[in-house]
Amino acid sequence: MTHIHRILVVEDDHSLARLIELWLGREGYAVDVLHDGLDAIQRIHEERYDVILSDVHLPHANGIEVLAASREVHPLAPALLMTAGAGVEYASAAIDMGVDAYVMKPLRQDDLVNRVRSALAKVAPKKGKTILAIGAHPDDIEIAIGGTLAAHRDAGDDIVLLCLSWGANGGGQSQRRDEAKAAAHVLGALLYGGDLQDTRFELRSTIAAIERVVRQIQPDVVYTHCAEDVHQDHRTAHDASLVACRSVPTLLAYQSPSTTVAFQPTRFQDISDQIDDKMTLIACHDSQASCRTYMAPELLRSTARYWGRFSGCEYVEPLVVVREAARGLAKAS
Ligand SMILES: [Zn+2]
User: Fold this and answer.
1) How far, in Å, from the CA of 234 to the mean position of ligand 1?
2) Binning pLDDT at 50, 70 and 90, where does residue 2 land?
3) CA 54 to CA 23: how far, in whole Å?
4) Quick check: is 207 in a domain?
5) Which helix H or strand E contains 204, and what residues bound it?
6) What's CA 171's distance to the chain center, in Å?
7) Residues 97 and 200 in one domain
8) Is 253 helix (H, G, I), strand (E, B) or coil?
C-alpha cells in the first residue's frame, strides 16, 4: 500500500497558499492549508502530518511557535520554514527548534517541491529500529549506554534521547542542556527534555512525560534506569518507565554511577568497537566530566572492561532485561 504523505501548509497570504496547495497537490501530496498560527497549533494537536510547512509571520502565533508545536507533537515530522530574507532574526530560534529546512521567498515551484521531497526522504523509508533512551538527568544516558547507542547509530537505527530534567537549578541548566544537545548531535539522535524538577521527580508526572514521547515515536526498544539505585529520581524514572513503556516490545534497564551492588545484569552489550565513541559522548558533558569522579575516563573504561569478563568481550555495558520481544530460533542452514 502506498502511503500518501500529508502536508500542513500554514500561510496567511491566501493566494500564495492556494498556489502552494496546487504545486504540492500535483506531486501527489495531500495538502491542508491554514492561514492562522493558532489554528495551526490546534490542528497539529488533533491530526498527524508528515510535513509541516509554515510561513514565519502569521496572525496570532508565528511560524516558530507553530514549528515548536509540531516538534512537540510529531517529533519526527520534518518542519520547514518559509521566509523572506527578513526572517533571519528568527534563524537561531528556528535552529534551536530543529527546523529541517528554510524555503526562501519568493517561492519557486521546483525549489519548494525539492525541499519537501528531500525532507521526506530523510524520514522515510524507515529501515532501522526506533530506540528510546530515558535518563533522569543530562549525562545519565551517556555514562550508562553511550557505547550501546553508538552501536545502534552504526546499525542505522533511529535514536531518541529523553532527558527528564535538565539538572540542578540556576545557570548550569542551559549549559547542561547544550552539552546534552552536543552529545545527541554526535549520536545523530533527537533530544527531548522534560521539565521535571531535579531531585523531586513525582511518579505521576514522570509517567506522563515518558508516555508522551512513547506515544509519539512508538519505540521498538527502550533503555531506562534500573530499579537498584540509591538516587530517588533514577528509581522514579525506572518505575515510571515500567508503566509508560508497557506497550514497548523490549525494555532494558541500565547501570548508573549510583546503582547498588544488587544490580544483576542479564545482558552484556559488546561495545568494544564503540568504547572511544562513548568517551567522546562523555567529553560532551564537560561541566560534569571535569569535576565528577564517576565520569573519569579511566573509571568508565575499566568498568566496561570489568563487565567484559562475563561475556568474553573486551568492553561491555551491562543491562537488565525487563522485557524483550521474542527473536525466534535462528534459521538452520
Ligand atoms: Zn542522574
Assistant:
1) 6
2) very low
3) 15
4) yes
5) helix 203-217
6) 24
7) no
8) strand
Give me the half-sphere count of Cα atoms (radius 13 Å) on the Cβ side of residue 302.
6
Q: What's the helix, strand, coil split of the chain in %, to 5?
A: 45, 20, 35
9: nearest Cα among 112, 121, 124, 88: 112
Final residue before a domain boundary, out of 101, 123, 145 = 123
Looking at the structure, tell me whether residues 203 and 275 fall in a common domain: yes
SS3 state of residue 173 = helix
Count: domains in the chain: 2
Structural domain span for residue 37? 6-123
User: What's the 185 CA to ligand 1 centre distance in angstroms?
Assistant: 20
The DSSP call for residue 268 is: E
* CATH, residue 27: 3.40.50.2300
Distance between CA atoms of residues 302 and 308, nearest Å? 9
Domain boundary among 123, 156, 175: 123
Distance 135 CA to ligand 1 centre (A): 7
Distance 259 CA to ligand 1 centre (A): 10
Taking the C-alpha atoms of residue 30 and residue 169, their distance in angstroms, rounded to an integer, is: 45
Q: How far is the CA of 270 from the centre of ligand 1 (A)?
A: 23
Query: From ligand 1's centre to the CA of 72, what distance in Å?
Result: 23
Which one-letter amino acid corresponds to residue 37? G
pLDDT, one tens digit per residue, over 42-74 is: 999 888 788 999 998 899 999 989 988 888 888
Could you tell me if residue 208 is inside a domain?
Answer: yes
The neighbour count for residue 68, using CB atoms within 10 Å, is 21
Higher pLDDT, 190 or 249: 249
Distance 129 CA to ligand 1 centre (A): 26
Q: Which residues surround ligand 1, an ion (CB under 5 A)?
A: 136-137, 140
Highest mean pLDDT, choosing among 69-78, 142-151, 152-161:
142-151
Judge whether 42 and 19 are in contact, CB under 8 Å. no
Tell me how many degrees the CA angle 318-293-301 measures, rounded to the nearest 5: 40
DSSP letter string over 238-275?
HHHHHHHTTT-SEEEEE--TTB-TT---SEEEE-TTTH
pLDDT tens string 175-189:
898 999 999 999 988
What spacing in Å lies between the alpha carbon of 296 and ligand 1's midpoint? 16
